[in-house]
Amino acid sequence: MTTKRGQYGSAGIPEYWVVDIHNRLLHIFRSPNETGYAEETILSADEEIRPLAAPDAAVRVADLLP
Questions:
Q1: Which residues contact 1 (CB under 8 A, 6 or more apart)?
Q2: pTM score over 0.85
Q3: How far is Cα 50 from Cα 63, in angstroms, rounded to an integer?
């Protein structure tokens, strides 16, 4: 089975985010490789992330959730 994570990683997309609305989490995948991503970080609603493309911009996970 092919997944978006695998496709994005093998294409070299530097960062891939998945918002888990049900559990109120953000999954961040970094360090792309030929099979997907080497790193996965999981953040809760009360945390924030700085995107690789805009490291000076902080994004609160809660702002991504309904």
A1: none
A2: yes
A3: 13
Identify the burial level of 8 via C-beta atoms within 10 angstroms of its C-beta, where 0-12 means exposed, 13-18 middle and 19 or more buried.
middle
Model pLDDT for residues 38-52, shown as the tens digit of each residue: 999 999 999 999 999
Query: String of b and e for 13-45 (b: at least 16 CB within 10 Å)?
Result: eebbbeeeeeebbbebbbebeeebbeeeeebee
* CA–CA distance, 57 with 66 (Å, rounded to integer): 21
The dihedral through the CA atoms of 32, 45, 60, 49 has a sign that is: negative
